[in-house]
Amino acid sequence: MNFSEFSFWWVLALTSVPFFAVRYFGKTFDWWQGRFDTIGLAALSLLLFLNASSTSFAVFLFEILFNYFMVSLMLRREADGKKEQAKLIATAVIIFDVAVLAYFKYLTFFIEDFIGLAAPVPSNWQSSFPLPVFQTIPPGVSFYTFQMVAFVVDSYTARRKKPIKLLDYINFVSFFPQIVAGPIERRSKLLPQIKDFKFKFTAENFDIGMRWLSLGMFMKFVLGDNISPYIADGMGETSNPWLIWFYAFLFTLRIYFDFGGYSFMAVGIARIINVKLTLNFLAPYTSQSINEFWRRWHVSLSTWFRDYVFIPLMGKRKKWSAFFLFITFSLSGFWHGAAWNFMIWGAYHGGLLLLLRYAGRPFSKLTNKYVKKPQILSWALTFGSVILGCLFFMELNIERLLTKLQTLITPWAIRLAIWARRSGRLIHLRA
Amino acid sequence: MLGVALSLSIVFLALEHIAVWQERPEYELLTSPWMSKILLVLTILLAANIPADFIYFEF
Fold first, then answer.
1. A37 falls in which pLDDT band (50, 70, 90)?
2. Which of A15, A287, A367, B53 has the fewest CB atoms inside 10 Å of its own CB, making it the most exposed?
3. Neighbouring C-beta atoms of residue A278, cutoff 10 Å
């Protein structure tokens, strides 16, 4: 949900006030049942989603119902000892979920940028395409799809395969603080908290929740939003290497304050109603290596890719772990958006991890020998690498990105240009 | 405003560094009761007039 939109808070208040008023009277006159809380949370989450995007609500609702009934069927087949059928159902659901994500997010990119590389694609291909083509993706589709996929896998591999109630599943997938931008929660962590959900307000939860909310709002509205306009102004800068670094640095700050701020607001709102969400960020810019950075940055996505892509891809082929790590990071980059720059960003981070893996030890031996405080050097190198990575992330225009990279590789060119300009002026004056 | 935002960002990141260096939870200093009040007041005073879109909503 968009916490910076007035309509989110307005709809939240508009639905919560009458709901909790009725609940108060219900509890006072002893007719309120526990399941009304579960229904209330589901209704609240779905209403807020409907308010955020009425057009994609139908798709979301269909995905919820499809996943729920298929997972239930899978569990029944497993209980009957038909393991092959259960595996087939799990595979079909995962393919369906990923296909929905691919359709909304990657169709245009796949046809225009991928097929377009091999053969010319007519500019009006969308009009003759058998399915409608969307210009914007439904809110949260990247996040809730991953949560749904994880749920299918975790349900399939769970030791105790207990059936789950529809209302619990709706609350698990559509829990309003985290549906649009995560954290991507797992069955083992969120489901026990959300199962047969009952609102529980305590002074402690309110206090802790407000602290996270306060931190998130400060990060987003003061730091992220005040830095943001300057980045937009500097996107066109391609000739001055210092300014390119500076704007990439601003973007590095902004992306953390923006996304971290959102995640902490989600943690705070959830905590007020007694749900503990995963901390998606753990001070990532304090990292002293790229490995550490990925343990601290977008934790729920990193662990998702580790558990559902990297480990299954690698299997027993541990000799190939470096290759699969690189593939996983490239895919992770692609998850961020249907554009080449995101793939380059993912591959860049995969490459950095491989560099650290093979050159990390000899490098640290060298620095320990000659540098007094090697941890400061490690931090600076890590932070510098992250800033350079953000240049790939922020720049959707590939031509401009290449120009910027060329400027960064040849920083002396600007000095030569200034020198040439000054010399030219001097010659002109003398003449 | 950029100067103010950058100065606050540096203080913010420094507090994270201090927490990590002291082996405390990363956001312990930033979520302490007194700091929460300061952050809330700063948010009211310094929040951007035009909120930017959340970056990750596009993903």
1. very high
2. B53
3. 18
Instruction: Give me the residue from A210, A220, A223 closest to B36, CB to CB.
Output: A210
3-state secondary structure (DSSP) of residue A180: coil
B46 contacts chain A (CB < 8 A): yes
Whole-complex ipTM: 0.95
Q: How many residues does chain B have?
A: 59
Under DSSP, is residue A219 helix (H, G, I), strand (E, B) or coil?
A: helix
CA atoms within 13 A on the CB side of A94: 17
- Distance of alpha carbon A171 from the chain centroid: 20
The active-site residue out of A298, A336, A349, A428 is A336
Q: What is the DSSP letter of B58?
A: G
CB contact under 8 A, B55 and A222: no
Q: Is the pLDDT of residue A245 over 90?
A: yes
B-chain CB neighbours of A6 within 8 Å are none
Judge contact between A64 and A171, C-beta under 8 A.
no
B24 CB-contact burial (10 Å; exposed 0-12 / middle 13-18 / buried 19+): exposed
Query: Inter-chain contact B39–A215, Cβ cutoff 8 Å?
Result: yes
B52: closest CA of chain A, how far (Å)? 5
